[in-house]
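hey m, so remember when u said the tokens were messed up on ur end? i reran from scratch. heres the input so u can diff it against urs
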Amino acid sequence: TNSMAEAVCALTSLDGRYASKTSKLRAYFSEKAYIAYRVEVEILWLLWLSNDPRIAEVPAFSPADKSLLLEAVQNFSVHDALSVKEHEAKTNHDVKAMEYWLKERFQHAPNIVKVSEFIHFACTSEDINNLAIARMVQNAREKELVPMLLRLHDKLSEMAHTHAAAPLLARTHGQPATPTTMGKEFAIMAYRLGKAIERFRAVKLTGKFNGAVGNYNAHTITYPEINWPEVALSFVHSLGLEFNPYTTQIESHDRLAELLDATAAINTVLLDVVKDIWDYISRGLLGLKVAAGEVGSSVMPHKVNPIDFENSEGNLGLANAILRFMADKLPVSRLQRDLSDSTVLRNLGTAFGYCAVAWGSASHGLGKLQPNASVMKADLEAHWEVLAEAIQTVMRRHGLPAPYEQLKALTRGLGVDGSALRAFVSSLQGIPAEDKQRLLDLTPQTYVGLAPMLAASLPKLGRDEPAAAL
């Protein structure tokens, strides 16, 4: 097919091998999408001017003309985008090309032609660009990125609840440690991801609309009687964005950098998640459901590899390399502006594309997981020494001498089984019978503290959306 041919000839894997995982982001971050969002800002600004009686030169549009204007936004097509690019080939300026295309599009609408010089009125290119980019990112976040993250969070939460009571030997420094449960470990993952998602969603993007260097110079020389900061604030708010009143020619990108940093923080959490899951799989504590027809190795027929988590790990790293660079670079611009931010901003789709691949792979991998109860039990049974903590702590309560030191001598670096520990407990003097019996009944599988309760009571992540963009 044509799409397959295009995929195998693509320059990057995002539009090639992983095109099916990133295709929905094209509606927000492709060149066509960028032009479309700019067209939207231009049209809405022209309509805004027409609704201000102080701008007598732009009378209110008739319903028919208003529909014609909005149709340019709602039905913006690939053909339209290509037409804009044809103008750009002559102007070597993307925003001016769009302005010329708009005038050309409405050349047969007399009432629009009369006010066509108010298209892009008093605007610098960045007035249009920054609002378009903020809306692109805001819409992509709520319509695509957050739903992906919530599905991933749901799968982690499901693992936490389903396996809340499944005993698991913990490891600190890679060595046997106090037991936990598989569900509790997944609850930690889900909780951390949930907090990172909340931070990601809480970032409020900002917009500027104050002219060439942020002082409304062209505005006030033309209509000195109008309070332009008030107009700009209202217009930016109408787009669902917060208003940045103090800027140079460009919006400072501080909030966008904050959002990119929040995205990278999500990926850092997930990097920890996929690495831990990989380790549990490598030790047989978690198994992978086998899919018919899949191959794990070109030479070793038995292999069932954790490829989803490995794929996720690689793409998380790629995403964060770009995200961290962008978060550091975008807020820095020479004097009133330089153009270095422009080329960087055109790679937002690349950064979020790698996120989409990583998040999708992790989510797919989670659907294949199944705890291996027998391996988990054997791992615990091989390490009775982890009960030393419990015994020495009870001894401390009842004032027995050198409890830590006694258990250290009994267990540190030594193989010890249940019989040896029970014999030690039985020999203790000064511990009430009830407490001693509780220690005698204890096993590595039952010494899990409140882990089952903590996993089972993992709170749900709020689904309420922040104020939607208009």
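this time it looks ok to me. The two ends are 38 Å apart (CA to CA). if urs says something different then somethings off w ur setup not the seq
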